[in-house]
Amino acid sequence: MEINKKEDKGEDDTTGPEGEMTKEDVSEPVEGDTVLGCHTRLSSHQRPVIHQVASAPMPSDYEFSFFDPSELQCREVLLDPSTTIPELFAVLRQWVPQVQKNIDLIGNEILKRGCGVNDRDGLTDMSLLHYCCKAGAPGIGDADTAASFARQLLSLGADPNLRSRWTNMRALHYAAYFDVPQLIQVVLQASQPGEVDATCSDFDFGTALHIAASNLCTSAVKCLLELGANPSFRNEKGQCPARCGP
């Protein structure tokens, strides 16, 4: 499952007084962002880049349509140094348990190839931390594995406030959307006070609490409230989170 929206917004937003609607700053694409081809290697100390789009590297004569690291053929492809960063991002886009439960294995292979911790997938504009917050989704991924890998990424300098330019979502918003309280906790522990109420323009400038409530993600709602999310914060439509349910 991919969330595909349209607009590129800014990285920062401000939170006003209780119940007051706020809007993010609108910014242009970051100058100097680099698009790397399928066969480019990047050392992790360089500036973040956007990696070119590629297809998942499925083994020849493989009977399944999805990548499964537990299968010998797929494992060989995964560990092959010639398999590129864009190809491995394409694997991460496959919304199946075989991939999502192995976010740490696949993610570490991406890092081993020199991917910067804040680099982005050219198709989704998502970073490894964004993918990690999806990978804990109930019924698809493993929240504990995803949380552990998220801590690793944050220790390497992953930016918890980085937004996908397609959805304008931060890691926190993805964790709320996919109902992963473990990732909400990890991300907020690495964030500044008040970031729990960071807004997202593609959800009517609502907060993570609005997003969780609108999707009936009860575990995420409970976690966000316990961590200080403002239940009176109003989105662009003047709605509090409690009014955002279907």
From TrEMBL:
Annotated InterPro entries: Ankyrin_rpt, Ankyrin_rpt-contain_sf
ANK repeat windows: 204-236
Gene3D superfamilies per the UniProt record, alphabetical: Ankyrin repeat-containing domain
Any single GO BP term: regulation of gene expression
GO CC, alphabetical: nucleus
SMART domains, per the entry: ANK
The UniProt record lists the keyword Repeat: yes
Listed PANTHER family: ANKYRIN REPEAT FAMILY A, OCA DOMAIN-CONTAINING PROTEIN
Name recorded for this polypeptide: Uncharacterized protein
Taxonomic source organism: Lates calcarifer (Barramundi)
